[in-house]
Amino acid sequence: MDAFQIQGGHTLSGEVIVSGAKNAALPILCACLLTDQPVTIKNVPRLRDINTCLRLLGSLGVQCFWLSENTLTLRAEQVAEPLAAYDLVKTMRASVLVLGPLVARFGEAVVSLPGGCAIGQRPVDQHIKGLQAMGAEISIEKGYIHAKSKRLKGCRIVTDMVTVTGTENLMMAACLADGVTVIENAAREPEVVDLANMLVAMGAKISGIGSDRLEITGVEKMRGVEYSVMPDRIEAGTFLCAVAACGGDIRLSNVDPKSMDATVEKLLEAGLSISAKGNSMAAKMKKRPKAVNLRTAPYPGLATDMQAQLMAVNCVAEGTSMVTETIFENRFMHVQELQRMGANITVEGNTAVIQGVARLSGATVMATDLRASAGLVIGGLTADGQTLVDRIYHLDRGYDGMELKLQALGADVKRVSQT
Ligand code: UD1
Q1: What share of residues in the chain are helix, strand, coil (percent, to 5)?
Q2: What's the predicted TM-score (pTM) here?
């Protein structure tokens, strides 16, 4: 198992080219199931989750080829068996994104229930409820969702909460349904917008894109497309947090600053100076960050996927802050590890109170989920001495070459093999 060995205390300077967004690329790859024509996707990040998605699509009979480092071509002429097996779904919950497209185009899908997850329960009841409302017959047998429908029918769906992949699954299914589907309380995340724009380019009829009310008029057939995935706002935000915590002067290219408002606002409050021009951003930090209170919320609120990284900044900030997590019930697992590095954090329910310390101290810590790992890496970059972040495979799910990008900024980070 790989770990990151970090010698902390270096300021960061230089440029990072931000990769394509994992959370946009995954639904976009699954959308290839909606057409029998070839789909070419550019700006695909090279990640473990993307490989898992390609294995899943491959197992369904989709032909997938890399045309170059970040460009993929996929063709779902037919599917062999519309089955997403437990082995793949358990390693990546987003595998459930094949459910909507499979039932919509092939009239049938068998998809494993994702099961437990480190950061919370994360049920998929809203995906199921929405498909049932569209006329799918759904049963749960032996841990699998069995969904069947001759042709889905347009209807009005009001989701109980804002769900990102739930909105994406139902929007994809509605594209090939008979009639008009309205999704109320839809997620407005930029990744949902990116998928919607791709679906429109494939011939879908969607209005209300970017709002919480999507109206989708079903079409008989969709066509192939060439589409480029949006930049990863969470990866970009992670590098901004790193420079806010370590100090320095960095430039990010291939970013979409508009998608990052909430994170940028918090980091400005922390004292980071940020400027954006076109698709690049510059960030400078000359002093110790100031503590900032934050509360995660669905977009346009602050992304839960930025919580751990911002908490790491607060750990070394001047003052006391409160961090409240409202999306997932168990997303504070980085707290215990940050405490092992000398952070002063107390947790009460879904709120963490952080009393900033001047310096963390290097320790061996364990990554527990993707974004928690990023928080620990930032902790290690600021710490006195050596930090070993173990189980870095979590980080590899969502960060494309993070150690290389950090090295280019002057950080002392090495990937090492742990036995
Ligand atoms: C997506 C992102 C993930 C991000 C999360 C919240 C992808 C691949 N992953 O995950 O990185 O942290 O959005 O922004 O895009 N819920 C239910 N029932 C459902 C669906 C969701 O109760 O059927 C609950 C969840 O348990 C959670 C909340 O709704 O508490 C939001 O979850 P959701 O937006 O669905 O997260 P994901 O789409 O899984």
Answers
A1: 35, 30, 35
A2: 0.97
